[in-house]
Amino acid sequence: MEQRVMEGAEPFRFEGNDVGVLVSHGFTGTTQSVRPLGEALADEGFTVAGPRLAGHGTSMEDHARSTARDWIRSIQEDLDWLSGRTSGVFFAGLSMGGMFSLYFGATRPDLIRGIIPINACVFLNNPDLARLVFDPEAPPRVPGVGSDIKAEGVEELVYPEVPVPPLESFMAAMRTTDDLLQAITAPVLVIQSREDHVVPPENGPYILDRLGSRDKELLRLDNSYHVATLDNDKDLIAERTVRFIREHAG
Predict the structure, then answer these.
(1) Radius of gyration from C-alpha coordinates of the chain
(2) Does the annotation flag 90 for ligand binding?
(3) What distance lies between CA 96 and its chain's CA centroid?
(4) Active-site residues (predicted)?
């Protein structure tokens, strides 16, 4: 049965020039968290796609049935759409979306011209969450991690709880991506909030150090928490992402 998509969680596509950009949201999140970045990139003339990852933006029951293979398939569909319209694709992503930007940067070097992971995760340092992964007595859901935003009055459209079944797939994808970092050769702009209550901020320097890329840079955000694409530094993120793409699209 077709799942109803939450208002604001719809995927987006903007046709523009021959430079493609994929913008991905994170685990339990929706396209609402990255739509402002996608629109800012479209305003600069780029061709932009923001996929709704399988199981996201519908229901927690739907999310509980989804896996990393499904999320990868969602991204691949939009990469195919972009590659058919552009001469090269850049990949920006928030949290798990940032993790997938690194994953695809390693596995699709033929297509991905540059990578912009934003508060990406390749480790969580969260034993309580890790204990749930193979626990047969684990609850079906645990408290959510959404709306970690410093700016007043800004809310993320996100599930209120985390379904436990997809955690195994999510953890496996993180560890896989960690092992792939050294295989990445594309330019990378790592964007990391100094204060993040969902993903340890140490991910940023760790990712930077492990990358195989020669052209790599770490941008630290001083005024945003985890959902930085909706937070006080959202304009800075858009500005630096546009500059990075222009510098490497030629």
Answers:
(1) 17
(2) no
(3) 4
(4) 95 (nucleophile), 196 (charge relay system), 226 (charge relay system)
